Amino acid sequence: MEDEVDRLVAAWRRERPDLDVEPLEVLSRVSRLARHLDRARRLAFSEHQLEPWEFDVLTALRRAGTPYQLSPGQLLTQTLVTSGTMTNRIDRLAKKGLVERLPDPSDRRGVLVRLTDEGRDRADQALAGLLEQERAILAELSRAQRAELAGLLRQLTAPFDNIPG
Amino acid sequence: MEDEVDRLVAAWRRERPDLDVEPLEVLSRVSRLARHLDRARRLAFSEHQLEPWEFDVLTALRRAGTPYQLSPGQLLTQTLVTSGTMTNRIDRLAKKGLVERLPDPSDRRGVLVRLTDEGRDRADQALAGLLEQERAILAELSRAQRAELAGLLRQLTAPFDNIPG
DNA sequence: ATGAAGTCTCTTGATATCGAGCCTCTTGAT
DNA sequence: ATCAAGAGGCTCGATATCAAGAGACTTCAT
After folding, report:
1. pLDDT value at position B163?
2. Is A30 in contact with B6 (Cβ distance < 8 A)?
3. Residues in domain HTH marR-type (chains A, B) (predicted)?
């Protein structure tokens, strides 16, 4: 089946036959799919009264395991946002009672963000919903294809994740 | 090589062994890779004094071919933004002299957005720069792997692009 | 000790986005 | 003709993001 990127690439080949636009076949699909996923996630989370950004922070803390706490800096690297954004997010989550801010006992500059019980429950519920929805999207592919796809994507993400980037 | 999603998935398997988090292997990589690409694109475009959003609009018009004009509505569907956003983008591009707004001769509600000569040149230059950068990112994969990856991604994007979505 | 450099978080100001509603014009049924 | 419904683009208010820089504290070399 044809997709929007096929049309996009065909248009470039017509307009700029001198250029090799092969890279777009992969990377434009990644960008566009990510936007579609954002919208789908937003919808899935709205059932749990959570915004995508709230989910990102809450689940980062949830994954850390007991006692469910991380520094803002650790949250930055996991969520790929800037520090100003994270400050703002923590403020709002704290106001909603889903996290609390504690002084870091071992570094007086630092802060620890801890998930509240309610925050943990909300994260767990939203994760279940998200996985269900993602499984539906991935039903297009066989198990083997999904594994293949994951492996190829890993080769592209690894340099970003490991080099300072 | 391991990436951030491997660590993320491992953490979920430890914290929620009851859940099947396999979908994340694919879709979390897509989302994270897209964010990395956004940043890389922003950097690549800054050499040409263009923002990513400007590139998106300009190249949509460029791909349309002579006379390089589309309606705001057509631009919406190609760039996946809302109409308010597109109005704002067109305003700013017009102010910079990269596009101009013309009345649609066949529908008095409508407007046509046309690329200026300078807009076309800037789009062409930025595209060349982007492709160069994307080629570097994709050098991790063989030609056959890139084709494989593109095909798998197409299967996921096609439903979004073809069904009303 | 002491000072310089680095780290961590927060503040600030600018800006882009979205969602909802509005107005104009078109379409199609009667 | 006329009217209701729809389509197209714009306005407006709220909000989330980023970049740059400030302040507090730590680290490390001297």
Report:
1. 63
2. no
3. 23-158
